[in-house]
Amino acid sequence: MRVLPRRALLAAPAAVMMFALVACGGGSDSDSGSSNAAGTQQSAQGAGGAQAAGEAEDEAGEEKETPLTGEVKQKAEAAALAKFPGTVVKSEEDREKPGMLAVEVKKADGTSVEVYLDKSYNVTGTKQEGTEENEG
Question: What is the biggest distance separating any 2 CA atoms in the chain, rounded to whole angstroms?
Answer without folding.
Answer: 76
